[in-house]
Amino acid sequence: MSATFIAIASSLASLAVSLGLAYAAGYPGIGNQIADRADVGPVIVWAAAAAIVLQWIVFIPAFVFQTEKYYDLTGSITYVSVTVGTLAYRLAYSNPSLQLNVRPLVSSVLVVLWALRLGSFLVKRIMRAGKDGRFDEVKPFFARFLAAWTIQGLWVFLTLFAVLVINTTTVESPLRWNDYLGWAVWAVGFAIEVISDEQKTAFNRLQTGKWVEIGLWRYSRHPNYFGEIVLWTGQFIVGTSVYAGGQWAAVLSPLFVTLLLTKVTGIPMLEKRADEKWGGDPEYQRYKRAVSVLVIMPRRQISENGDANYGCTTQGDRPPTSELRQCHYVRH
Questions:
Q1: Are 293 and 270 in contact (CB under 8 A)?
Q2: Which of 65, 149, 173, 329 is most buried by a 10 A CB count?
Q3: Residue 112 and residue 83: Cα distance in Å, rounded?
Q4: Contact 93/30 with Cβ under 8 angstroms?
């Protein structure tokens, strides 16, 4: 099967999945229940389409000039545009009462805050680096490069799914405990992501040639991704106050982010690069055994021979299987 065929199929699948999920979550939703106005269809469907069309618009000059420098910037602009667009439509044509729109207002502001912060961080990074190696093999090929941009549209929509449902549902509900819980979870995740990004940037300026092992990076090999997963889980929790019917598909938002970062792009790619660079270093191997790959948690103590210390009197060796029930990991 040719790479071109796979790329075309990926683009079509991304479009179909986005529109299909949006349509499933469009009822009860604004856009098709507005009195005295034309039936424009569920607004969330238009939001899904816009997320992909925006990528296609920027893809054209990106392909002509063979550059990926505006890929992450376009993603951030799409997050903001789709979120603000659905919120504005809600306020203008569906329910203009600010008092009854605290939930979508707060959740949308949090998305904009996150997108502007992360977008500026990624743009600065690629401007310093001059390129993004992920696109070296696909950039010269129209269909494959287009697929990368189309998939980003799907990525934006699925990540935003929970918030888009909050912004477009017609279900009314006063603020509840799960709204405050969700926003608190979001704040924790956002703080983790920001702190870990800043710590990594500061460490890389030292140009030590080593892996990051300071601050939160002492307790997770990818704390920024952990923060990302936590914050989108928080947005989903907020939406549980209003989800109805097919809108519960919004659970795909945190599930998609988790799957993408742990199984597809983020962690697998970075772990592979790290293994290629430092895999032969015994200190790095000890670091991998001691530090959680994702969740921030206490480090395992590692013996001199690189084995985990299980808190058993076995002279530093891993205890026999029969003794494991009486042993536990020693953490600090």
A1: no
A2: 149
A3: 8
A4: yes
Please report how many Cα atoms fall inside a 13 Å half-sphere around the Cα of residue 175, on the Cβ side.
Answer: 15
Q: How far apart are CA 253 and CA 166, in angstroms?
A: 13
| pLDDT tens track for 243-269 | 888 889 999 999 999 998 998 878 888
Asked whether the beta carbons of 135 and 68 are under 8 A apart, the reply is yes
Please count the residues of the chain: 332
Helix (H) or strand (E) holding 158: helix 142-168
CA 310 to centroid of chain Cα atoms: 35
C-alpha span between 288 and 278 (Å, rounded): 11
Q: What CA–CA distance (Å, rounded) separates 159 from 119?
A: 15
Residue 32's identity, in one-letter code, is N
Residues paired with 308 in a beta bridge: 302
Separation CA 48–CA 37 (nearest Å): 22
Question: Can you read off the two tokens belonging to residue 142?
Answer: 């129209």
Strand, coil or helix: 237: helix
Distance CA 52, CA 55 (A): 5
**What are the tens digits of pLDDT across the range 151-167?**
899 999 999 999 999 99
Q: What is the mean pLDDT of residues 71-99?
A: 86
Amino acid at 196: S
